[in-house]
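Milestone M4 deliverable, item 7.
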Amino acid sequence: MMNIAIAQSGGPTCAINASLVGAFKEAFKESSIDAIFGSVNGIEGLIENRLIDLKDMIKSTRDIELLLQTPSTVLGSCRYKLPDWHDDARIYEKIVENLNARQIGAFFYIGGNDSMDTVNKLSQYLTEHNVDIKVIGIPKTIDNDLCVTDHTPGFGSAAKYVVTTMREIVRDSLVYSIPSVTVVEIMGRHAGWLTASSAILHHLGESAPHLIYVPEAKFTVDKFIADVRQEMSKRQAVIIAVSEGVSVPEDVLSGVVDNFGHKYLSGIGKYLEGVIRNEIGCKVRSIELNVMQRCSSHLASLTDIKEAESIAAAGVRCALNGDTGKVMVFRRISDAPYTVSIESVAADQIANKEKFLPKEFVNGAQNNIDDAALPYFLPLIQGELGLIMDQGVPCHFTIRDSILS
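Output delivered:
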């Protein structure tokens, strides 16, 4: 018999709690696993010995159903960067002490690029020091920028929200008779997957977004203004999708970095709004989708939620088979019918690496997304959750605030 621990890390998504459900359910039915702990605030919970018994938290089928429709990280998150254990092993010694004290034989970390760095470092330390505790990474990120895996849980729901919201913005923009430009800023630091997904609207018969800019394409302000003028010559209302991470003058950036050295991006949409106002002088507005694109579970993709659950369950089976230092990934077998398999790869193949849009997804003018991208995106946004409602509002699963304080 052994116990296990599960933690969530990085930015929230609509599907990260579904992965918690998948790992919990798989562990619950396994006779060799006794206690199932949740680490509060990611790896920080292991360091500070803040673990809760998930069997006391998740007690019914209704709890499971609510978790599946609850966005964000119910256990709390963190952006903690583990030091290199060759330089400072004290944190690792503390983690091992806390894991051993609770007889935890496997740790599952649900997160993105930086979380897989933690999986890689911790598993290497444990292996090097002959500590028999398995460490498995469960992928999640709306940015969809993890290497090796075809896509990441959380991305499909975020893409569905982006496409739906963009379509509503299109309807709103067409009510006036004066020329207008609307700039919609979408998350994506280095990779433009989420912004590119807005092109799904083209498959649905919309001409918008008329311009799409992603970090992988060359971007200049002069070319941007020329593109906008050209589109305005063809239509009354121009809708633009732009990744937060497109190349802009340094003064647009905040200059602040997080624990992993990532710059906090600030206001590319507002910046471009000002450029259009000064250079063209038309009616212009910018809309930053911000956290709504990662936490709008009322528009979650059923495909995304089901896959998040299944890949986490596969992670538990991977650890029980004796593997460690692995990250679970999707391999796409077919677009139509949409088919994927779940496999595992070494964490060092994913940690601190990024996956970018294929060049063939970006059009020759570097200002839109080619139709070749659509078969990739479309299957990921399919299906809707049957939401449990309260007074007309979706219900969410929460745990006591004192646990997360």
